[in-house]
Amino acid sequence: GENVEQHPSTLSVQEGDSAVIKCTYSDSASNYFPWYKQELGKRPQLIIDIRSNVGEKKDQRIAVTLNKTAKHFSLHITETQPEDSAVYFCAASIGVFAGGYNKLIFGAGTRLAVHP
Amino acid sequence: KAGVTQTPRYLIKTRGQQVTLSCSPISGHRSVSWYQQTPGQGLQFLFEYFSETQRNKGNFPGRFSGRQFSNSRSEMNVSTLELGDSALYLCASSSRGTRETQYFGPGTRLLVL
After folding, report:
1. Percent helix, strand and coil across chain A, each rounded to 5?
2. Residue A96, SS3?
3. B55: nearest CA partner in chain A
């Protein structure tokens, strides 16, 4: 089946703490895993992504890890700031053909609140 | 480059009517995907078009349809609107498909009364 589960649904942290959001996917053919941030009233924006041939990727305070065997991937935000407050979505791209005939299945989202 | 644009931004319809939403992708992008976003269901994949061909379709009834033109602009149509169709409809474009970075438009907020 095509399913992406995301936990937790809400996350509240103090400024400066770390935040971790976890996702699991069901289709072993998934090969691309982006994370999107959506601020209130705005469009989703890509913050980081990882492909199935890589186990970890980092971009400043944001990192993503992928465990293909367990079919789960996680977003790590360190030194959180109030402007990190938003809804975060994970997604898995299910590959059908090598030419890119994929579709993105999104998790339900995590509402992150960073308190000063 | 100009970003993804969607028109109209807001729409109010009544049950039974039909609606057409438009999406203009980033210049040079040939893939356009559509998503329905609701508070209860999150972001759900509707369909993806590439070079005027629908390559993938989500689990939505046949009332939801789409098309893509030769300039990569895409439209989606919802016929016989139901109250449950009220949602934010987002389109996203990428150069080759959903294995590449998807750039989202601002969305069209549809309210069905």
Report:
1. 5, 60, 40
2. coil
3. A101
For residue range A19-63, list pLDDT tens digits in order: 999 999 988 888 889 999 999 989 999 999 998 888 999 999 999
CA end-to-end span of chain B: 37
Q: Which chain A residues are within 8 Å of B98, Cβ to Cβ?
A: 32, 93, 100, 102-104
Contacts of B90 in chain A (CB under 8 A): 43-44
Cα of A32 to nearest chain B Cα, Å: 6
Residue range B57-66, pLDDT digits in tens: 888 999 999 9
Q: What CA–CA distance (Å, rounded) separates B102 from A85?
A: 22
Mutate: best of B88, B98, B101, partner A, most A CBs <10 A: B98
Neighbour-count burial of A16, counting CB atoms closer than 10 A to its CB (0-12 exposed, 13-18 middle, 19+ buried): exposed
Q: What separation in angstroms does the CA of A33 have from each of A47, A71, B37, B46, B109?
A: 11, 11, 19, 19, 27
User: A16: which 2 tokens?
Assistant: 């400066």
**Chain B environment of A105 (Cβ under 8 Å):** 45
